[in-house]
Amino acid sequence: MDIAQRKIDFHRLVRDAPMITHICFDACSKTVKIVYSSSVPLSHTTLECTRILSKQSEDRIYCIQVQYPDFPLILNFFGENCPLLKGTTVDFVVTASQNAEIEEVIRKVLDVELRHVDAFNGLVNGTSFLLRNIEAECFTYSFDESQEYEFQTLNNDSMFPYLLINIRTGVSVVLVEGENQFKRLGGSSIGGGSFLGLTELITGVSDIEEMMDRALQGSPDEFDIFIRDIYGDRASNFNMDPHLLAASFGRVTRGETVRRAENFDEQSKNNAILSLLRMILYNVSQLAYMLSEISNVKRVFFNGFLVRNRPIVMKTLSFACNYWSSGKLRAYFLRHENYTTGLGAFLENFPNADLYWKEYCSGSTALGRFVPVEPLETGFKTQTFALRCTGFKAAPFALLVDQDGKPDTIDFNKDEEARNFWIEILDKTINDITKFAIASQENCSNKEDLTNRAEDFQSDFVKTMDIIKEHHVAYGNSNARNMLEVREQILQEKGFDDIYVQKKHAENCTAIAELPRVLAKIDELKNTGDEKTVLEYVSRGLLAGNVFDWGAKEVVKMMNSESGLTFQTAIDHVENRPWLFDGFDSFYKKHKEYKSVLIFVDNSGFDYILGIIPFARELLRNGSRVIICANTSPALNDLTYREMVELAPELKNADSDLAKFIDSNQMMFVQTGQESPCMDARRVHQDLNETVKKFNTDLVVIEGMGRALHTNFNVQFKCDSLKAAVIKTQWLADRLGGKMFSVVFKHEHGVSVTN
Known about the structure:
Nucleotidyltransferase, domain 5, Type_II_PanK, 7-stranded mixed beta sheet, alpha/beta, nickel, 25 strands, metal-binding, Rossmann fold, hydrolase, nitration
């Protein structure tokens, strides 16, 4: 059957085909993994409500998996639609016996030369790359009935050393001690191939998915011997659990009435498959534990086709590792381990591998086995995993105490009520977001294209929310920041890079015009009042500015009301002290001691110009250096680094003191590397880290509900911190024990860290 007859939408499956510049093939026993990159031109929303192509492009990596019968179809598509590949050298991972035949087909169809890449190099490099870049890439799996995933995000320092247990045809154990530093410690001939072969030999079942389904329905009691069968009630005398496995298939040798393979009914087949699986996985786990002890390694990752996020496999490995190590060793798994070898091989000859790459959820059709594979049609199944390059290097924020700790105040993976509340909020706002998207480009000449892109955004985002409702671990963590970031990704994918750009510009202009009056009032107060009164006033102004938030439903109602929302109205909404979390007195006592203050800003307009700037001006007047940092990319009405830099001349024109501070670099601007209304300080722009190290930052100020409450509320820093926000949702107010417009002004001392 040819491509036309199959009616496969390859343009949806293979993204950005005309721009593909580099490709790698990882041919396994039953599937082929294809990893390729493309450079995608970016568009830009203008203040005139049009959309134009920018001069920038974005590098992306796509990983897809196809079954062998479908490989010729997709290879032909690459050959016909990827002109930039012709005459180049592409990478090929040497793993399977049928490689020679596939290699020749690839050479002929694509008109390329092949470069062989070692599979072990690819496996290790791909694993380390995913751990270093992708949030919540690794996880543990509970071995009780809860079937709970616990996700972790690691960094380049904390991930090493680790053991990599690759369960494929056999078992290989690799010790990874650093970037490009690894050695094979050993392995076993008893692995995935043994399980498949013995299962087919004993039961006649040949499909691995059927094997796993049957194992879930099996019981080990028919074939296995347990401690209780040997010692009976005396097992407790030896401090042994009577339910522990003593001998796999031991009952067959004891002369008991056990069916032989030729007489198996369906249940006996299920039981035999389960006993086989447990026998092999228990032995692999014991090997992993012994080698981890010898290597002094505390983290072990299991991967390979036998694992693939299969609950029964992960549960068994997790239990066995816990048992052999007496609770010291936990089994870890990867969300995207299916692509580690191909991805690592691809990166070996790719120029931007050392930059920061993020998971690109809107470009993925399915993520491993966390989301049901979306078939393009019956008989053709595939998966797509996408990444996008940020264009910079990233690392954990230098002043974080726990550089792998979760920033989220509430873990939605564990709190179903919180997760459902946020999904409901996002569902209710989808129509408004779609209207904002259309309005932001309403002067585009192609109205039909504009409408179609907006409808595509709405449809894709609804599908994403539906997936999270059904599989809340589909994207790893499903917290507020993750869902908001996915929404921004889908908007950008549909050509809506900044749907609030016109509103932000208008509010910035209004706020700049009002800034001299606000500063004059502060100066007047400074001449007549005491120092503490002035500091409290600018702190209240900081909080008042934070009220202006297009992401908060109650505030949007106020801004859209007939009377609107003025800065003075916002100040009036800031409650009198004592506040819900009131650290003002503590902050006042130390505020003159700070020599280098870093401020993470939230919204543009009134928040930044009338809230942050007057607050920063007082610290600057006290002699502090103030470093203001904003998001690298747009999110809601949050200020971006580009907008912040463009506003600097306006600030200088508004106030002579600000002009002096900016010109002398006492007031500085830097980007965070973030693109969400929340903040994950585990990955920030290298410029930010270099700046705080250079100027010995001793106070971190985090402003805004997303950055200071939904995230980072419980995060500890090595220096003092101030977390300031006004609560603008009733749900969060209830969670924190406050009410609407309650104030959080949380001043905390730094935590000493010893290396």
